[in-house]
Amino acid sequence: MLKNLTISADPVVIAKARAKAAAEHTTLNEVVRRFLADFAHAGRAADYDAVMASMDACRSGARFSRDDANAR
User: Fold this and answer.
1) Measured in whole angstroms, how far is the alpha carbon of residue 42 from the centre of its chain?
2) Which of 2, 51, 58, 64 falls between 20 and 30 A from 24, CA-CA?
3) What's the pTM?
């Protein structure tokens, strides 16, 4: 269930934002929802990059053929 959020902003800014959203075939509500989701999850990409960078010790240093990679 979605919750309502009330914000205050300059009417000119709101009008320009609505026009831009319409030009992108979306709504201002959807733009704000995406912004909030991105804002709430900010840092996850950096966390992922840090984990991947720390895995350098796991590199084999060689390329494997398909048969080698699938050998049991």
Assistant:
1) 8
2) 2
3) 0.58
